[in-house]
Amino acid sequence: MSLKSKQHNLFLFPRWMNAVRPYIAVGMLLAPIYAVALIYYAFSPTTTMARYMPEQPVPYSHALHAGDLGIDCRYCHNTVEYGAAAAIPPTQVCMNCHATIRATSEKLAVVRESFESGMPIPWVRVHDLPDFVFFNHSAHVNRGVGCRSCHGRIDRMDTVYQEERLSMGWCLGCHRDPDPNIRPVASITDMTWEAPGDAARFGAKLREEKQIQPSEDCSVCHR
Amino acid sequence: MPIWGMVIDLDRCTGCGGCMAACKVENNVQVVPPGEALKGRGMHWLTILSRTEGEYPDVEAVLQPDLCMMCDDAPCTKVCPVHATYRGAYGLVAQIYPRCIGCRYCMAACPYTVKFFNWTAGEEGVNLSSSLNPDVSVRPKGVVEKCTFCYHRLQKAKERVRAEQREIAGGDYVPACVEMCPAKAMTFGDLDDGESPVSRLAASRRASQLLEHLGTEPKVYYLSKRDRNV
Predict the structure, then answer these.
(1) Which of B28, B45, B137, B150 to mutate to test binding with chain A, by most A CBs within 10 Å of its CB?
(2) Which of A62, A92, B54, B187 is most buried (most C-beta within 10 Å)?
């Protein structure tokens, strides 16, 4: 073989490529399907944990306590106005009522056991943000973002589940346009509260009054 | 809005290393295993630079705490390709770990060498899991980190002053190193307020900034009789 034809061959696909061609065609057909499936999966509830509803050690019903009985959220989650975390109540809080109400119920066996041993009830966390995100309940609650805006209608949930995606895009959506989610601080825990008239206009008025400026600075949440 | 700054009085500093330890504990800075540290991968957001001056018997140790200068014109922020480090609110240079891709351009750009790359993420080092500060994230392997002037403390102070219904002022928070300093060599506060102790000290004749000629406008000032011949 001459030098010229050897060089010529360098720029041609080798002969075995003919056998590979149909597979490349199949690959090119499948690639868009794969891309679509990947994006769908990334935003699906499996990934975002929306509708995550773990089984709790005690069949505690928010629908009964917060909904039917109308106990304020802050009776149990008492640090929500002052601290970053809305406290999970100690067993003593349950026993304030259940020492006398349904004191022998089978469903409350775990609670009584915990009260006697002093070990906390192993509640399963539902709303769990990544470790590099720092959310502060008091910052939101004291500016008039109601519980319902992020947690949904807790008063209708027998078992609590995660209502929203809790993704960064979801957070920023409200930080960029908070007006529809701002309400008077007096009714933050009111699950049935509705803005009089247009929610966005009502919220805008409150935002002006309280000078609420939601931050979009990264280091406010990531630090 | 205050512009936070720091003044370190080198004439008072004894070089005890209290600030280093306080910083390390406060900010969950990982303890790098000795082998890695020998490769120059040790991690201290605040280090104490030391050198000796003079000939025996007139030898003097010069000790200088070295931390992020929170430059007003920070070279590191200009080279970051992903906006993970930028000059944010209060003039603080932020470092967003989940955003960082670990390219280390900022480390190369920083003239003060106060940015650190996570080589190990503590998997071989001392396990600190039971003593971590819950207000600060634990950085993963492969990101760059640096002093934040204890930004988590600022966040808490912001919430506190909001509850007290007033604006945040110079004395509302101090970083862990300043709180720790037993010689009271470190002063922290609002550089924007001409009456604050920190701006008075920064205007003193003893004051200088590190590598002033680079024009990075650091917000950490050093006081020393030595360099200024005061």
Answers:
(1) B137
(2) B187
